[in-house]
Design a protein that fits this description.
The protein has 277 residues and is mostly helical. The chain has 13 helices and 2 strands; from the N terminus they run H-E-E-H-H-H-H-H-H-H-H-H-H-H-H.
């Protein structure tokens, strides 16, 4: 199953949370989230961890073949990409703009080419692109369940770099309950926080997606974790215009990062119009 996706919602998320000091992945210019620090919203990019050195080669023959591979990925020519990768070219090579081959294929809506890249020998399912995103994040972001599941089989991590967004943040942002369920089943941290303290529950509340909020709470998400600006999940829901959800998530005070507050331990009854599936 492939779920539809729009960059517009993520761009609006970036804009809406910039003032709250939220840490977001992707670049607005390219359609993927960038990481803005809480001090001034300045983009900071993680270095690539597994970029093939082939793109730096001085060998003209190899350089030509790499250019052919890039062209195949750029044009969505899965057959040509498969042939070139089978000849020994590294699947973790970079495009001219610094993207990984997999990233470029996913951004270009060429899932068949992306599948060819990730099935090539030597593909790293946890390689970061130039925005610090993993292949699994991109699969969630695009809503491609087949690629998502295959990446998990290949050993993709459900976590992100310390203090950065995780695949679960992406799934919660878009309200993708199927992906949320898979990620939780595979051990994703439901209370993962960015440097600014943003959690998946906050992103689900901001959508707002009551279904995903329920999934996360049942998996142990803390409603009293707040951002470095003091915003709780309830505040995100209120800003999204869902006052009932905000009341459901209400807390008396924020917990210290990493330690849960002792207040409001009791479970609030789920409203009848609060879907759980």
């Amino acid at each position: 199953m492939t779920i539809s996706f729009s960059f517009r919602s993520v761009r609006s998320t970036v804009a809406a949370l910039a003032g709250a000091g939220a840490v977001l992945f992707g670049a607005a210019a390219s359609g993927f989230a960038a990481d803005a620090n809480s001090a001034g919203g300045v983009a900071s990019v993680l270095p690539l961890t597994d970029a093939s050195a082939q793109h730096l080669t001085d060998d003209p023959i190899t350089a030509t073949r790499i250019d052919e591979l890039r062209r195949a990925v750029r044009t969505g020519n899965a057959a040509a990409a498969k042939r070139l990768l089978a000849s020994g070219l590294a699947p973790n090579s970079l495009m001219e703009n610094g993207d990984t081959l997999f990233t470029y294929a996913m951004r270009s809506d060429a899932p068949e080419t992306a599948k060819v890249v990730m099935e090539a020998e030597g593909f790293d399912p946890n390689a970061l692109n130039r925005f610090g995103e993993t292949p699994l994040m991109l699969a969630v972001f695009k809503g491609n369940e087949a690629i998502f599941k295959r990446l998990l089989e290949l050993g993709a991590s459900t976590e992100g770099a310390p203090g950065r967004w995780t695949p679960l943040h992406y799934a919660a942002t878009e309200g993708r309950r199927t992906f949320v369920e898979y990620l939780i089943e595979h051990g994703a941290d439901v209370n993962a926080q960015t440097k600014a303290g943003v959690t998946p529950l906050m992103m689900a509340a901001r959508k707002p997606s009551r279904v995903v909020v329920t999934q996360l709470l049942r998996a142990g998400a803390y409603r009293d974790y707040c951002t470095d600006k003091g915003m709780s999940p309830a505040d995100f829901a209120r800003n999204a215009g869902d006052d009932e959800l905000a009341e459901y998530l209400a807390i008396e005070r924020c917990a210290v990062k990493g330690r849960r507050s002792s207040v409001r331990i009791g479970t609030v009854e789920t409203p009848s119009n609060f879907p759980t599936r």
